[in-house]
Amino acid sequence: MGLLRGKSPLDLGLWARIGATGFGGPAGQISIMHREVVQQRGWLNEDQFAHALSFCMLLPGPEAHQLATYIGWRRHGLRGALTSSALFVLPGAVIMLVLSWIYVLYGTVPWVSGLLSGLQAAVIAIVVQALIRMGKRQLSSPVMFAIAGASFLGLAFFAIPFPAIIIVAGVGGWLTTLVRRQASDKQAPTTTRVESTNSRKTLVAATIGISIWIVSVAAVCILAGGTVFPDIGLLFSKTAVITFGGAYAVLGYIAQQAVMSYGWLTAGQMTVGLGLAETTPGPLILVLEFVGFVAAYQNPGGLPPLLAGTLGALLTLWVLFLPSTCFVLLGAPFLERLRSNIPLRGALQAIGASVVGVVASLGLWLAINTLFSNVGVWTLGPLQVIAPHLDSLRWSTLVIAALGFVFTFTLNWGMLRILGICAVLGLISALALPGV
Q: How far, CA to CA in Å, does 28 sit from each of 21, 23, 203?
């Protein structure tokens, strides 16, 4: 019983429970952690929690996972960080793996296909809701609106790579903040640093972890050359470094690579993966576990497809969450210095604005590929525009998507309720109106 109440030496029960009940994306997970850590246990006060969250938002990777890792480190040092990091991800990762197996084995069965189609339709409204929330938080000035607009145009109409957009926004925000600062300005005062007595051990462990990450990817490239696994390792390793702004932001980049460049899965499968990730606990970025699974399942390279898919999913998890954890360990002893670095905060603000444009581009891409069964690309020089064939409109999906907007913005229903009802509507549509 003590474990279940979070009273174990490493708070195992608490992190396992948060990992298993953390629905609703980062907002929901951060709210759960705030209630447990600040309100109920008093491990951090409001100011410390806010500072920790700001620190995690400076880092590439899922901020809710990194916040859990930091709290574990603050409580119990290196062992606490590794424990909270693993338990925060593990329940959702296991559920996503099981759902991936079900999808590849039974996804073409009409009633399962109907359920998944309903999930796809609901995802459109959920992404729009996330976009509005991000816009309210990030677009605080005309300059931020301009950055978001330029990012949207760059991705949606000129296929500019996502990493380039993030780098340009970050460097621009950094330089702009430096120029604006007056010579007499002082950095924000720092409070008591929250360094651990074993900070050196933490930094050494983080360096070892980064080295293991790099060596393991190199080993996959050497030992599994000629298969899909080196591409999975390299793509999601790059993703781990540029994942600012959460899973929604990076999904556009993954869609560009996994769907268009590598051809691992279709746009519809990508949307199904996002719908499944929305229904599972843990970081939303677990959608990439689904992508890695499907990529290896459909390109097994001589292995049994299910085994190949499972290995692809595990490799994806490894190269995503190992560096995410190490980034926290590298910065945790220097939390206050990072928080008070004004140019760094300026870079983060610009990246946050660009992410709004990136998510808007993703929403457009998801909506078109979900509502139309036949989609092409119209090009003119550097201009590349998604061009759906209007006669391929999926009418039943359109109706379910419209209801998803009503459920989300008019009735203000919870996400899981919306996904469940839309899935049932998709099932009814598939059985009663096949092919519509």
A: 10, 6, 30
Q: What is the CA radius of gyration of the chain?
A: 22
In 3D, which of 176, 159, 137 has the Cα closest to residue 358? 159
Q: Which has the closest alpha carbon to 240: 188, 292, 280, 197?
A: 292
CA–CA separation, 48 vs 67, rounded Å? 12
Distance CA 436, CA 426 (A): 11
Domain ranges within the chain, ordered by starting residue: 12-90, 91-105+127-369+377-389
Q: Residue type at 274?
A: L
User: pLDDT digit string (tens) for 259-286?
Assistant: 989 999 999 999 999 999 988 888 889 9
Confidence (pTM): 0.85
Q: How far apart are CA 196 and CA 161, in angstroms?
A: 39
Alpha-carbon distance values, 176 to 292, 348, 363 (Å): 38, 12, 29
pLDDT in tens, 324-344: 999 999 988 887 666 667 787
Q: Residue 181 in contact with residue 57, Cβ under 8 Å?
A: no
CA angle 71, 76, 81 (to 5 degrees): 55
